[in-house]
Amino acid sequence: MKTTLLLRTALLCFAVCGAAQAEDGGTDVLDDSFYEDTPAEEAVPDPFEHFNRLMFEFNDVSYTWVMEPVASAYSNTLPEDVRQAVDNFCYNLQEPVRFVNTLLQLRFADAGTLLTRFVINTIGGVGGLGDVAGREFGFKRVEAGLGETLETWGVPDGFYLVAPLLGATTVRELTGTTLDGLAMTPYYFLADTWQESTLIYVGRRVNNISLRLGEYEGAKGLTIDPYKAFRDGYFQYRKQSRKHSSPRTDEKL
User: What is the pTM of this model?
Assistant: First the structure.
């Protein structure tokens, strides 16, 4: 029983971290404008660089030789609109936790957008299979996680970390993502066994990758030292994505 609970918790962490990094389509890391007015590196220590580099290599091999080939075959089996519907459905189930985090960050305008998106997509999008709120009404996706909430509350990053299968993160962000994951995926607990939980995680991860084939290789091919580039890129991506968040004060629903 304890083993099953630990496996579920770990898989939840893997699923949400990987999905969170893949799902936000609002920022293009290959676009030159992404790096404008952005520091080359965040002031977060990397005391375990040797371990992190080993984990980076492990993740790179896992992605290149396992996840990407499977995702490529999967993309050739199902049309893109079906795979996008799966992505929309999973994303919609996570909106309530994003809503709570925007409230905790005093981002009331974003909270209103999230609530509106959830209602419209759940009803008009057939349970979230379609992003009607974004496509028809202009309510774009809003990102908000517990890691950002903890940052707003003044909790420091800790240190940089490359987690197995998860990738770049920090102690604070990993804590927030893990706790978010326990609440953000109610469909996950429909599984009765850890094998079913594993299939749900793998299926969702493969679906996410299938919608973004080639992006990882494109970014990796632009640098001599991929580890350092992806470490810097992680902080640049995080700063850029949070830069577009609504002001956290003096807002009304």
Answer: 0.77
